[in-house]
Amino acid sequence: MDDNLDFETYLIISSKKLVISVNTSLNKKIYEKELIIEDDLDNFNFDKLIFFLDENIFKIEKKLKNFVKKISIILDLDCLFSIDISIKKKNYENEVNVRALKHILHEVKDDCKKTRSGKEILHMTIENYCFDGKNYSYLPDNIKCQNFSLDIKFLCISTKMIKNLEKILKQYQISINRVVSAEYIASFLNDDEKDIFSMTKEIIDGYNPNEVMMVNKTTKNQGFFEKFFNFFN
What we know:
The chain is of the alpha+beta class. 28% of the residues lie in helices and 37% in strands.
């Protein structure tokens, strides 16, 4: 089989349907199948998922003449939960920039993982910046202040869920590229020309400048914080 074909494979897992889609790097659809289900996958009953993969993985690989090695998973389940954290720091008129925030955000991420064991962070986003009492939705250039605070949101899932998904995909010699929240992805879908799969690719590639990317991944269009957070893993 040809290992040089450039394609992305996505798997939507929700309580109502399963969808697998394969797109080229130019977002041309190569393959897509959907299964409507009545079972509740929130209870970690993955029998339908295994059946669905059995029905489609070989067909995809035959069509592509290539092995599917990685899948990006889009979760639309109630088992996702969020954690909101606010931090405040004195700054003494120093400039606040990406480099200055690196250590702080690293500590916050580690504290979140330590204090709430048994979970995996899917998305870490900075929801609000506040410099000397003035709020911003982004990090301004060349800003100095006496005090600043950050409102940070973690979107998480249980480690057990991730392990279950990894175990199932391992049967097909497939690894997980990234797990993302369907609700989070949908919040950026305001263009009729984009679907959930193309938007997922953009999010993974750093579309949201306020998302702290924690994957060891080099992209052409890195998010604002991805540029220095690759070292996390």
